[in-house]
Fold:
Amino acid sequence: MSAENRVISQVFEGLNEEQQRAVVTTEGPLLVVAGPGTGKTLTIVRRLAYLVGRGVPPERILAVTFTNRAAREMRERTDTLLGSRGGKVFIGTFHLLGLRIIMESLQRGFSVIDRERQTDILKGLTGGAKKADLMAERISRIKGFIEEIDEETRDVFEAYENTLRNDHLYDFDDLIRVPLAAMEDGTDAESFKRTFSYIMVDEYQDINLAQYRLLRCLVSDEGNICAVGDPDQAIYAFRGADVGNFLNFEKDFPGGLKVTLRQNYRSSKVILGASSDLIGHNTRRMDKELEAVGSKGARITVISAPDEKAEAEAIVREIEARVGGTSHYGLLTGAPGMDFADCPGGFRDFAVIYRTNAQAKALEEVLHRSGIPFQVVGGKGAAGIRMIADHVRRHIEEGQDAADVLGAAECLCGEPSISEDDRASLYQIISAYRSLPPHEALTGVMNELSLLSSGDSFDPRAEALTLMTLHTAKGLEFKVVFIAGVEDGLVPFTLGRGETDMEEERRLLYVGMTRARDDLILTCARNRSLYGRISQSRPSPFLDEISERFVEKRVVRDRVKSPKQRQMKLF
Ligand code: ATP
Ligand code: MG
Structure:
């Protein structure tokens, strides 16, 4: 069998009829609308391989996703199907796409600054860390066409832009805005349109206006664009994502085909049923039938605990029960136990998901004592990438030769502290720039490192439990999922500024619930200490929207107070 035929036969392996239709419909606009776990991302990867298998030059294919992690996964799956031929397909986030367009067509010799450096600059202009944070958010919204500039912001905005210009810096929003301006002003518009013949976008429901406009500039006259998504999983309205773009696809790209995928291959019938109950309460939606291919599965468990520490302990106990044994923690708390050092692994099958990063602390403390290995996505994530970025930056500042710095960076990738996942990304970046003169290559590598260190990366191969927010869980799946803090105030989140969009909050919980394959456990605390305050809390009103037949409720009783504590209460 020729290499081409082998690729084509692998492309269709296991796909259902509708998925196959989406794969072979390569010409003209194609919209794939489907619920979670129906194989949308899988279909994109297969479609991409199909195009290459049919002889489309890989460099003419663009696949955009929303997170570094999703891009990496797509890259790995593509490489498995295509080997080295897949290397030239552009797979990446919108930011990476913008960066590459700028470097290849518009300008070289600039640096990308991450949010941390952005707020450092703004601290100098606003006079305080808190103000700088707020201003960074506002500037991002202005640059993303979500907000108009107002008088209050204008001076700082202009001073900030001057600083960036003088120091040849771009922030993340510029990576979309700058190429967009170049394309929309028309001079080189035609050449940009010819860059990619086939475009695919995953998670299309979360595209914002700037990204959407960039995409429209890139779609060739043949209109070969494939958008894949689920309006029920739109969770970025607060960042200006507009489900309207999704709903308007057929109008914006006329003459296309719409494919609906109905079979959910991820979750048990119970998990899918409970999730569908929940999302059915949204009024603004396109109803989609979904059928779970898998087995019925166990009921989802709702656990009420007295406080966030007891909630975390309950989660540890549930994990222990599932990996067969208990930890040091179990020993300490008097439960029968086994040391996790002897555990055959399997922690990567578990995720604990929460609404805000502030919830992570209590979970981390208890997990730390339990001995269960875990990784936190976001926050302190991407430490390895940061380490390399800092190292490279220091050498550049010391004026070392660019070729030497690149060589040193490559050596650093071999350090044991760098996760396998980060290492793969780093090698990929370095090799992408290998053909350029060392100085330019170094700038490119540095800029891409800035994008990667923004913190959505985690190592899917690590034998560790994953902790992350509902937002970062998008697109992922785990055998066992815990959602912590399913309480009124957190889910829906009403503690922030501004009005709560109940439908978006419901979609967010829906995204969380549909990450689970076999087991879903929702936990809540009756008292929670958060942002330095202790308050009583009630279970999330969304729980009432899930049919009782899918749920098993458990209550962890209040702690029995020690005689000393009881005595203290008398005074
Ligand atoms: P989400 O909306 O959460 O992003 P998705 O629609 O992108 O989900 P995938 O992540 O592509 O779904 O697939 C979900 C799971 O179903 C994966 O484990 C995938 O391998 C599996 N899957 C998809 N299609 C099939 C199929 N035809 N046969 C067997 N398994 C499949
Ligand atoms: Mg997906």
